[in-house]
Amino acid sequence: MHHNKNQSLQKPEKPKPDECCGGGSCCPCVWDAYRQQLAFYNQALKKLKNK
């Protein structure tokens, strides 16, 4: 998730149950992408709160 002043900050959506095969061999897994987007979101949110 990239954020700039013209975009609103939106929390990423969790993957839907049918988006993950559950096999653990996909690289990257949809959950990996979600966790990365969530980390960026939380970091941006923290920066906004500290302003």
Number of strands: 0
Q: What percent of residues adopt helix (DSSP H or I)?
A: 25-40%
Low-confidence stretches: none
Average pLDDT rating: 87
Gyration radius (Cα, Å) is 13 Å
Largest sheet: none
Shape: elongated
Structural class: mainly alpha
End-to-end C-alpha gap: 20 Å
Written account of the structure:
With 51 residues, the protein is mainly α. It is 39% helix and 0% strand. It contains one helix and no strands. The longest helix is centred in the C-terminal third of the chain and has 20 residues. The radius of gyration is 13 Å and the shape is elongated. The two termini are 20 Å apart. The mean pLDDT is 87.
In short:
The chain has 51 residues and is mainly alpha-helical.
